[in-house]
Batch of 3 targets.
Target 1
Amino acid sequence: MPLCEYFLATDAELSSLAESGSPGDGLARGQIPAGTMTRVDAKGFDVLPIEALGKRLGVGRATADGKPDIHSDDFEWFVQRLTPGMVAALASQSDEACAEHARALTEAGVTDWDPSDLRGLLSELSAMARRAEPEGRGLFMWIST
């Protein structure tokens, strides 16, 4: 199960991430000022589950097409930007809708997360998505294989 984190970042913070390799490492090394980047650990909720959620939310793609925004030389880790449509769809979700999506994704076998834990993750992603535009940040997914 790949490591996965979702985070909000400006272009400058994303550049710092390219130097550190992970959102947590950049924060720990002081390359990204503490308190500026919001992130949530989501081990295993990677490309397939987020694309399945995007399909449920009616967006064409959850992640941007093409080469990842940043990546290691060997693609051991990479960062994908969530599409504007996905961010807008996430931002519009209520806690009740997050619970329904969590139940549906679990029942469909898309993820092995516990539905209540997944509801919490989806609620956090929804809250992050609501902050993205006002803060001038993108919503990104970091994966380490």
Note: Helices lie at 11-20, 23-28, 47-57, 84-91, 95-107, 115-135.
Target 2
Amino acid sequence: MNAETTGSGRAGGRSNGTRILQELRNRIIASIGVSAGGAVFILLYLGFFATRYAWYSNLAVVVSALVVVPVVLVSLWVHWGMGIGARFSRPVEDRDC
């Protein structure tokens, strides 16, 4: 038996559900921060630096920012989702295939 299933079902003073909700809360806060940071970056870039460069350079910077933010968010949430899936998945048997 591991530490999560022995005794009162608590590991390190926190239940499994509480830990999952804390991880979810942290990722939601990080998602809001990354999204807001990306939006602020684009607005500040277009407001202060865009006049120095050609339109295609400005387009490249904006498109890059619009690609980087979702990539960061997807990597953040995929890592969490795979961990949740591993916690709650049932074992695969030969007859399932």
Note: The chain has one domain: 15-89.
Target 3
Amino acid sequence: MSVDTFRARHPGLVWSNSQAGEAVLIRAALLRPRFHTIMDACLEFGLKRVQSEWDLLRTEAKAETQRVESETARILRNITEGIADAQAAD
């Protein structure tokens, strides 16, 4: 999947800015915690990049992230565990 494919698959994330960069797309996905959207972001941009953007969001925009923190943290934890399990099986 490419950035354009990710954007096309999730057009509602940044509908007002069709040229939004990767960081904006990732942060928008994290602030609207849906498993498949965050998983797609991890597949496209890498788990470390998504987790890094989440860490930045939590420190820079505490008020925005408070309402979604537990849900997004749970989704990221499940994705991390799933990737680790898949790698261990190989």
Note: The chain has a mean pLDDT of 88.
